[in-house]
Amino acid sequence: MKEAIERLREIDREIYRLSEISAALGWDQETYMPPGALNDRAEQQSIVEGMIHERITSAEVGNILEKLGVDLENLSADLVIDGLEEIDNAFVREIARFYKRETKLPKKLVEEYAREASISQSRWVEARKASDFSIFKPHLEKVLSLKCEIADLIGYEKERYDALLDSYEPWMKTEELLSVFERFEGRIKEFVKRIVASGKKVNNDFLYRSFDRKKQEEFGRFILGEMGFDFERGRLDVSAHPFTTSLGFADVRLTTRYNEKDFKSGLFGIIHEGGHGLYEQGFSEKLIGILADGTSMGIHESQSRMWENLVGRSLPFWKAYFPKLKETFPGELSDVSLEDFYRGINEITPSLIRVEADEVTYNLHIIIRFKLERELLNGKLKVQDLPEAWNSEYSGLLGIKPPNDADGVLQDIHWSHGYFGYFPTYSLGNLYSAQFFAKMKSEIPGLEDEIGKGNLQVVLSWLREKIHRHGRVYPATKLCMEVTGETLDPDYFMKYLEGKYQDIY
Amino acid sequence: MKEAIERLREIDREIYRLSEISAALGWDQETYMPPGALNDRAEQQSIVEGMIHERITSAEVGNILEKLGVDLENLSADLVIDGLEEIDNAFVREIARFYKRETKLPKKLVEEYAREASISQSRWVEARKASDFSIFKPHLEKVLSLKCEIADLIGYEKERYDALLDSYEPWMKTEELLSVFERFEGRIKEFVKRIVASGKKVNNDFLYRSFDRKKQEEFGRFILGEMGFDFERGRLDVSAHPFTTSLGFADVRLTTRYNEKDFKSGLFGIIHEGGHGLYEQGFSEKLIGILADGTSMGIHESQSRMWENLVGRSLPFWKAYFPKLKETFPGELSDVSLEDFYRGINEITPSLIRVEADEVTYNLHIIIRFKLERELLNGKLKVQDLPEAWNSEYSGLLGIKPPNDADGVLQDIHWSHGYFGYFPTYSLGNLYSAQFFAKMKSEIPGLEDEIGKGNLQVVLSWLREKIHRHGRVYPATKLCMEVTGETLDPDYFMKYLEGKYQDIY
Lengths: 505, 505
What we know:
- The structure is a homodimer of 505-residue chains.
- Chain A is mainly alpha-helical.
- Chain A is built from 21 helices and 3 strands.
- The longest helix of chain A has 30 residues, at 2-31.
- The radius of gyration of chain A is 22 Å and the shape is globular.
């Protein structure tokens, strides 16, 4: 048994390194790659993904799993193999999950998908620049059709969405997701409506003065350092769409983008990605391999959204850092008080761009995407009708119509990669983040005072201990139970919003 | 037969993509990788190199070569397989060469070498920064001992150096190299001696005024554009040591470094790497695979050295571009005339740093390295004695003693990667460049006038047609014969120097 696990670890180590290589190629593509290299990169990604597929689906892996007595047909988050310690048990569970999924896909399809996704992503950048959906359309169609094929091969009981959601939020079914959304969708819409109806306005014109790009970056790096991001083991760069990726166990790369006319864009992008980055830098070294990863995208987003909103948009945080910000931008912010700044960055207002939305209306952006991508997958919506459907949803739910494709249907990178089923994890992240933060507050007396003193280390230490170091050892629901003693409960998020915004609105 | 070649091409295509991936990882390591990621990267490189090795040494490749009737024992640059067209013939020759070499090495050794070379390269960066050879010493020892093991496994008739030289200058033996060096080593030493003895001084203090880094970069990019470098299919970045690498057929990356106190360093680094880059961007698309590469490093260096020196340090070149340079640096160069500038950048003076040396004394730097690395390989010199040997050679041949390791034995990246046998190709490059340029001049009437008008396209077109597009189809000696009608003759280089420097000194 020990020998079998050892051998599996060897195979896993190679797969892990290949995944890092794929991440390196992906990072480069979105940061520095010259545009002409698109086809080269697509070929390279296709080869690497093919190799990963070959390794995880090898007969040897199948034999070892069989020898270990894993019942692939009834694989579940609760898999227990007698005689294995917790980490080894989780390791076998995740390998089995990966094996089960990949063995259903032919290598050719995996390679084709990798190639098309790589090309499609580049075309999306181009289309977004030109604000022209038609450039992107044929590629999105191709990627969507490949994803449908993949979902059908993987299989599902109720709907295609299940098969894809599972790659971002392991073990979760669309049905459960819908039931979670049911418990907060109405309340969040109601909440937004109430605030809009109140007619109260927050003045934050000062956020749209001109903020020097270099200084924004300098301040962003300072904040990342304060959060505990280790620049010896990571970087910050610029890309069309902010993201975080790991090119190695000790190589976590964040990106953001800067807008000189909107202060929020760059900094809150950095804090958000910083939250992801801290999770990635926090896995226990003994997990290196398939377990050294976020346990679900919902949990991953809980880390980014917590730092961005519950910490980064809190009054204590700015009590600590507003003086430094004013030092960095003396001309731009000299006439702004801490309280006005705090209110300014917490304005709730329907807006066009998801990543720049306030933490309340943000969820409406997710609701729209979740709905549209489900319709795309079950064939109710055609790609050609997507821009119109997008605009009509925005008009309906947020009351604003995107003036162009770039700020509308082309704003997010996800679909270009074929990441259908990803978006809802952002809202799950919001929900988890509030529940985790409530627990943290109850366990750390004076938490807000510490944040107010710029001691963000208390936050990071708690997260490291409770969440980060475990990587994928606990599936999301189990982790939530371990950390908070409860299952996911949207109440925490709604209470957090109500408490915060009654002071502001 | 056609089928066999087709299958070989498939295998080659995968190897080619894997080599590009290795190049991508290498490029990232030297430009943007955070220092903590060293071990991750070494593991990744080790896996990729292991995969390349596995593919090229597969029984299938051996069988195909046998079926094609390739006699591996007597493989030569003149291999002719009946019934094959020129390109297919060259393709089989290069695959056979690679196969023969790699089958002699166990995969474990290839992986270990890749890992150690990656680590060693990083330690070299560190050591150079700290100007402390002792940081680098154990890694150089390790890499040297692995390279000796590799050379012994590959085999050689006369000396270890043969086995390594062959990877940079295919088919060339140390003996031939020595005979080429014999025909110019004495003359070049004599030439330097004469100039130093003449007591004539060139005034170029103005090159060491303060040149803004950003503006240097801007001007460098402008010149690259003028040379015909395609930024859609390439990039320019900064690294500790200038280099060129291809991450894809359409993805050629150059690096340089800037010194605000020495104008020559950044720009001539850019022109040099630009010469490499143009070669890499000029391979015919039908060669994609093992033939889409420089045919030897000597030929590769002929391209970089030609652009750097025969073009970039010529009077016609600066007739075209000095006005633009003065515009870029009005304060710094307003009092400098074209002629003074031309003389200034062509000062011949013994100096410490190879890549910043003038085109004459440059060869003395090579002679020293060639001698020392041969001694390292045949065991006559120990790594621990290298800094002293280095300094003593510099005192003897150039009359200057490096004040520290950074500007002495640690200045070059090559040995850190285990590139023993590479340095002589720079001098070969100088020799080839002069011979090619003489031919170009004889074939293009008014060549210098065209350069003087900033029409560098005539140079590039000639190189594309005669050299670039052929990639590795012709081995170096054959290419030289095809282009110039003669074998390599150091006379061209000496005549070029004599003609140029009698005007200056």
